[in-house]
Amino acid sequence: MDGQLLPVLLLLLLRAWGPRGQGTGPGGSLEEPPKEEVPEEVPEEDGILVLSQRTLGLALQEHPTLLVEFYAPWCGPCRALAPEYSKAAALLAAESARARLAKVDGSSAPELLEEFAVTEYPTLKFFRDGNRMHPEEYTGPREAEGIAEWLRRRVGPSATRLEDEEGAQALIEARDVVVIGFFQNLQDEDVATFLTLAQEALDMTFGLTDQPKLFQKFGLTKDTVVLFKKFDEGRADFPVDEELGLDQGDLSRFLLTHSMHLVTEFNSQTSPKIFAAKILNHLLLFVNQTLAPHQELLAGFGEAAPPFRGQVLFVVVDVGAGNNHVLQYFGLKAEEAPTLRFINMETTEKYAPEDGGLVTAASVAAFCHAVLSNQVEPYLVSQEVPPDWDQRPVKTLVGKNFEQVAFDETKNVFIKFYAPWCAHCKKMAPAWEALAEKYKDHEDIIIAELDATANELEAFAVHSFPTLKYFPAGPGGKVIDYKGSRDLETFSKFLDSGGQLPAEKPTEEPTAPFPETPANSTPGPKEEL
Ligand SMILES: *[C@@H]1O[C@H](CO)[C@@H](O)[C@H](O)[C@H]1NC(C)=O
């Protein structure tokens, strides 16, 4: 057979036996053309079902327990999630779990976005029993094991039923933190509350029992949730309120508080827990772990902790372990260790003891009590004033020289508050330099910048970057927020008119001097639709 004939034959065969319903092959002509193409199988990519407007219904029939990710090709956080999502699918497949993972490109499925009220990417929804109505919003972790565990606890029971001592002991031994619900009646509403919480608290293992001999074994007479841990006190009891029943929020706070070590070492694994602990006050001990005299301080620090459990979280920060961002946040240098700092996470007010280097159980407790009873003034973080702060056209401000420069009654001061990592700040930097260059000979105008991540101000807090503020000359400490576009021309007009703002609602007045996009509507790091 020569080389020409074989491909032609193959092509003919393919035509004849090719996929049905395409209307191109012979023999399909007698059937009514289908109204919409329904493929028989939902395509897959890396173990993930790839859905479209048409195939969601089909996928739900075939896979009644389904987690669906709505993504867009251009969405950064979606790309970061992708490998973890595939790994989670592989984990579940290896266990033959009933749950499947799927994704749908929202940018080509607008009807689905509307049906499921998706407003940002990625959005994940969990469907059960093949039911298309009211899927559960997925707010779980974004890494593989967490995603898999979240689904396991929905597909299977979220707590292990315990029938005897052996089973209970085995569960308690298995993990560092194990939570067991002791309920006399498993039909009770409190049990449902307990199981719902167990679905969410993925980093703890849950058990459940109604066996009288287990109540007895653990010295209980009433319904109680007990947290067993292999450290610190070993056990903490949460008795169920007989009248009010089990409150999920209260129990959740209790478990978070008591599952943490009395003293937590700060690192990348513990920091999410530290911030999630919902304990507003943190006491940090900064030490250099390579120095024996520093290590010896940990004992006294830990000794002071028990009475503050649930009120103040005790944290140790090793200054030599990639924790520079923490040091910077507190305005500290590594050489200042050992030292203590206290922070209220809600107000972000920071406190330093008068003698930071003295760390004994008594001095630590005294410092905590003093802060909690408002006997210590918070301090503001500031860098040192650089010796050449006023040598360049753009002046460098820090916390320590801010007031003196910004509120100078003889000067009009225009300040950029930035963060070193902020892309919008970098983008506007050349315009800011050019502005400073242009006005450098105006005695009464100062163009300046301040790194707001390393300097705190008493006058106001900076929450978004860049923030631009104008401090006109004259008495009264006036401050004008700049909301115009960030280019040399607009900046200049603003300065020349003595800090005139563009109209408040530029969209309603197309002839306003600044019809450009206002500064606060520039896209932030969130990926909206
Ligand atoms: C910790 O102490 C060691 C020993 O003195 C020193 O070499 C190291 O630089 C210190 N680490 C930091 C971050 O200061």
What keyword list fits this structure?
529 residues; alpha/beta; Glutaredoxin; six-stranded mixed β-sheet; five-stranded mixed β-sheet; 17 helices; 21 strands; 19% strand; disordered C terminus; binds 2-acetamido-2-deoxy-beta-D-glucopyranose
Structural notes for this entry:
With about 525 residues, this protein is an alpha/beta fold. It folds into four domains: about 45-155, Glutaredoxin (3-Layer(aba) Sandwich), CATH 3.40.30; about 160-260, Glutaredoxin; about 265-370, 3-Layer(aba) Sandwich (Glutaredoxin); about 395-515, Glutaredoxin. Helices cover about 30% and strands about 20% of the residues. It contains 17 helices and 21 strands. The protein has helices spanning about 5-15, 55-60, 75-95, 110-115, 145-155, 165-175, 190-200, 210-215, 250-260, 270-275, 290-295, 295-305, 325-330, 360-370, 400-405, 425-440, 490-495; strands spanning about 45, 50, 65-70, 100-105, 125, 135, 160, 175-180, 205-210, 225-230, 235-240, 265, 280-285, 310-320, 340-345, 350, 395, 410-420, 445-450, 465-470, 480. Strand 18, helix 16 and strand 19 (about 445-450) form a beta-alpha-beta unit. Helix 3 packs across helix 5 (about 145-155) and helix 12 packs across helix 14 (about 360-370). The protein is flat and about 85 Å long. The protein starts with a helix and ends in a 33-residue tail after the last helix. Mean pLDDT is about 85; it is low at about 1-30 and about 505-529. The structure holds 2-acetamido-2-deoxy-beta-D-glucopyranose. 2-acetamido-2-deoxy-beta-D-glucopyranose binds near residues 288, 291, 319 and 334. It holds the Pfam family Thioredoxin_6. Belongs to the protein disulfide isomerase family. It is found in: Endoplasmic reticulum lumen.
